[in-house]
Give the backbone structure.
Amino acid sequence: MRHGRLPFILGFLWFPVLLYLVYVIWPYCQTVYYSLTDWNGFTPNVPYTGFGNYADLLKDDTFVRSLFHNAVILVVYPIITILLALFFAFMLNVGGRGDRAGIRGVAGSGLYKTIFFFPQLLSIAIVAILWGRIFESSTDTGFLNAVLAKIGIVDPAHPLLFLGETNSWLLPAIPFRDTVLDAPVVLWCLIAIAVWGGVGFYLVLFSAGMQAIPKDLFEAALLDGSSRYQTFFKITLPLLWEQISVAWVYLGIAALDFFLLAFAIAPPSMQATGASHVMSSWVFFTAFGSSRYDKFGYACAMAVAMAAFTFILALVQLRITRREKIEF
Amino acid sequence: MTTTAQHASPSAPPQKQIRFARPAKNEGRVVNLFSHGFLALWGLMVGIPLLWATVQSFRSDDEILHNPLSLPSHWHVDAFGRAWTKGHIGDYFLNTLIVLIPSVTLTMLFGSMVAYVLARYPFRGNRFIYYLFFTGLVMPIFLGLIPLYLTVKNLAASLGLESVIGLNTYGGLILVYIAYSLPFTVFFMHSFFRTLPSSVAEAGLIDGASHTTLFFRVMLPMARPGLVSIGLFNIIGQWNQFILPNLLMKPQSGFDSDRSMLTQGLLALVNNSKYETDWARLFAGMTIAMLPILITYLALNRQIQAGLTGSVSK
């Protein structure tokens, strides 16, 4: 059994691990190093400043505002996505009428499962084009405005701005130093796009978990005359805890990232005012934006802080959701 | 939750027509109506934008701009031709294939090799390597963006391989794609390999098979459902990758040829359409970019569900 074990392990590991260290870990390490400097990103001299960049973080109004935006996303996005995905997964796997033997989804569940996954297949470029057209602030060319105008909700002379709307919605804007802590409409639009895109993946994840629950459990419950609510809350939910916890961690990571949406879909005017910024897009803007060209070291410090938040959040989430494993 | 895949099938329900006690009929009907309505609504919300965008590519620019909701008066197909040749979508399509065929294959190979060793061979440093890959799962790509650019450039230069793995080369992008896809692949395949029964592996070793033979001949085929679903996720992820090609695949000089990926090409079309107003071409390019992924997904759809059933449990 032990024959040739070590050479085998080394032989399998060395190349992939080396590749990973060189292209992924090494750049991250460099980012950590640059966060301790005032490097501007291109000149040969790299002035060391210690933790000065980190001390500047809390003095940066846009950073605090972006952090607040991330917090809003972190509260809203995972909850809506998980609830929707759970509901759909339940309907499509065990929600079918219990008038026959066997547990299955509602009619046409195979088709629904296939279609709901579609957004996962699209690149961010396509998502940006699609939703750009949907949210466009014109009743002629914008899909949503055109529909709303047809129903009579929107006056064609005053189309809704959607991605161009900086007014805070649901949450009153809180003045903070030179900026505001708010939840602008453009941010809600981005969250809507994220939910639209994300539900399909978590639906598949939860479906897989539900398929793995032995069917006799559901059948026993049905025989005992339990309703769909009872089946869901007493059987499905507790046995799906593992997948829900994984989903919550993934969604938490995604909520703190949110880069592609804030970068590719929010219009440049919103990015300039900071209304649509989340931490990641502000990092990017600081590192590469033409108006802030000498801030590269500071941008790295923001990036490292962001990674630290993400890591801590993931650990806390794993700790909160930890339960005893149920074997079936 | 270790043997879920094996458990689910033997306990499949008997196909007899037994009538169950039906709980409150009215409740059932109302809930049915509501939930069906909601499912259908979500289906439309997901399906209509795609359908709408596809239909746009058959319309004239005038129609697109002035009447976004209606069907085309004539079904024009020439926008697809314009996208393929004038919009260079054909070239970008080919570039993407050149990169993806080796990068996805090698990602799956290396990813399962690492996952297999980490899952089934305890050794000093095993957990360390595992958490190293977990770190990559948590970190957003753009954290290391500028250093990555420099790393690709300097590594190629120090090895004298600028034209093979340097900036704006297929080789360089392939290596970077593999490296960034490894964490997810390792993480998922790791849990998959753990669920495979060890009796088979032991029998193989007693029969005198080497560890390598055992992996390629026995364990890898057994992990097929997992490989298919993770493979599909890698195809989708790399096909749609946006940040990495934008950083690494720019012509380095006037003589360097354009090796853009599809997503870059699409963005170029977006930017061009602002000046040339060829919306139909843009939507046609988008449809072309969507289609291969859509087809792959529909072909593998059934196996994804099967694959995830065995692997999502940690």
Notes: Chain A has a mean pLDDT of 86. Chain A touches chain B through 113 residues (CB under 8 Å).
